Amino acid sequence: MVIPIKILGDALSVLLLTFIIVLIDTLTKWIAVSIRFCKDKEYEPSILNVFRGIFFRAWQEGYLESQKYKWAILIKGLAYLLTITLAVIIYMLLPEYKFNGIYVGETIAILIYVFIVMAEAFSIAENIKEAGYQHAEILERALEASLSKVGIQYRHEENINSYSDLPQEVMKGESKEHNENN
């Protein structure tokens, strides 16, 4: 069975877009963690200090861990690859099936592709918000509005622990300092 060029082209385009968006998501996460590192160490979060934090200091202090991020990116990439493969299979199984004049296979595949992009866009918005950019809320609200147009209600939890991605050693040090101050 040969995959038609249109289906393959769509899948490869989404795969490339997903790779780029995951790269941007990873960079924004590293920037947010590096800014948190600068604030915790009472450094000015300037471009130079954030750069140093991403490539040197935050790794040494345990804020960034290569094993943790390597596995997270690998799992995310594999999940997206399988999801795109599923979209291609659905597209091929229902190539000519129409419902109310809409090609079902193509529509489902496009919705799957949009889901991937929206999931990463929310992750990028959360990273930008965690980095301290005050207008990140606007991006989140725009994404929520676009989802509500298709009937999906997105609930954003306000009480998310922003330290959940820190290694346990840093978390223990953080709680000791908090207890000593109180």
Please give a structural write-up:
The chain is an all-alpha fold and 182 residues long. The chain has six helices and two strands; from the N terminus they run αααββααα. The chain has helices at 5-40, 47-61, 66-93, 104-130, 136-149, 168-181, and strands at residues 98-99, 102-103. Strands 1-2 form a two-stranded antiparallel sheet. β1 (98-99) and β2 (102-103) form a beta hairpin. It starts with a helix and ends with a helix.
How is the secondary structure organized here?
Elements: H1 5-40, H2 47-61, H3 66-93, E1 98-99, E2 102-103, H4 104-130, H5 136-149, H6 168-181
Antiparallel strand pairs: 1-2
Helix pairs in contact: 1-2, 1-3, 1-4, 3-4, 4-5
Distance between the termini: 68 Å
Q: Numbering strands along the chain, what is their spatial order in the largest sheet?
A: 1-2
List the uncertain runs: 159-178
Structural class: mainly alpha
Order of helices and strands: HHHEEHHH
Return the average pLDDT rounded to an integer: 77
Report the biggest beta sheet as strand number plus sense, adding barrel if it closes: 2 strands, antiparallel
- Helix proportion range: over 70%
